[in-house]
Amino acid sequence: MKSPITLVAIAVTALASSLALASADDLDNRNPAIAGHEPRVQHVLLLSVDGMHALDFANLVKTNPASALGQLSRQGVTYTHAFAMRPSDSFPGLLAIVTGGSPISTGVWYDNSYDRALLPPITFGGGSTPGTNVLYDESIDLNPDARDGGGGINPDALPRDPTTGNPVYPHQFLKTNTIFEVAHRAHLRTAWSDKHLAYEIVQGPSGQGVDDLFNPEVAAPNPAYPTVSTTSSVQATEDYDDTKVAAILNEIAGYDHTGTTRVGVPALFGMNFQAVSVGQKLKMNVLRDGSIPPPDMVTGGYIDGQGVPQPALAEAIAHTDASIEQMVAALRDHGLLESTLIIVTSKHGQSPIDPRKLVIAGESTIPDIVGPSLIAQATQDDIALLWLTDQSQTDAAVALLEANLAVAHIDTIFAGLSLRLQFPNPLNDSRTPDIIVRPVPGVIYTDSSTKIAEHGGFDFDDTNVVLVLSNPSLNPRTIKTPVQTMQIAPTILASLGLDPQSLKAVRKEAVKRLPGLGEE
Prior knowledge:
27% helix; 2 domains
């Protein structure tokens, strides 16, 4: 069996002829760990179309082969059996892509989780007793109703280190490094744009991985329509996505995201799109001004189990595709298309695709069975993650759940040995849930009356996502062998001539790069 370093060397040599090479002048900026290997591309553009399934992509390409995504697939490798992280929340989903790791390495389970070792935020009452809800969403903004989050993160809303009492920022909560840190350390420019200020987590533990970070707050309304929640409207979410697309276009032109300072095109940059995810989840769409749209644009989600989108979702997919076309055109216009690897994937899918499978179960369903006093934290979407106040009662809690499988719409319970076979032992790890409840596919634990889909779970609809790697020099092919989005991170580093083994999660979890990019 070859060593990981040998495999990386073989992969670098094999792919050198299949992708555009960077100039010799760039070699001085590359990681010395792989000195002697020419880098394959000068730039990687990483795009997460949040919520987009492999099925969504296939339907788009079939019905509109001239689409931007269709064109990218004809110049690249399409992975039809690519799977996002479990749990399929946005935080672990993105971190899988940029660290190459799962919660085993990252220590991050959700944007709403629990840590038995940290102290509560000041806004939660503070105190000196360890154990707190860790919430890294818009609630930590100084002003979540402002697109810039009020100018930053509120330190009083953050969990605190028990030794120093200092706030723990998202990047400090992450236990492993990111591709942005590796690239930045190699003196390559980096940029990223996402949906909350909390996504500064991509900076990595150093806090310095991203040179140009732009995270406009998606929870804030459009200033032109202050009474309309962005995510209650596909159109409003498209407007929000457009602000980040503009940032990418500025970066392709060699400026920072504002378009005011010339800094050079990043070697590693990208963004996430929100509109598709919103179009999948909305039961009732409204227009950006809050008015009711025409009847054929009211309903979100899917028509059937084959992934045929309702008009509101079809609009979101088409708008996102058009945005990607803008980026491809800009790369072409600036002479960068040949030297750029474009990666289109998703942090997560959405469940259920088939509207007939949807079952709404109240948020109190699981806690009422276990007993609210025994639950320190219940994070629920189409999954239920349970942290208990008394871990010695885990078996008793599981017994109660097993006695109520039908009532709680439970498919599988992970606890004890069945949980430890997949994840760290919650008795030794301060962040791992004591119990994971996987419901019957299609079930969502929510009190919302507006949702028709959700993510976070372990099921196929949650995790089977789009994954396409495209460059004009690649031979188009489709790979149906199962792969994971964790494999994107080492692939990105190898494509830039950097050492995939410099990622701690890649080493710890023995993650290999994606197959099929060259003769192997």
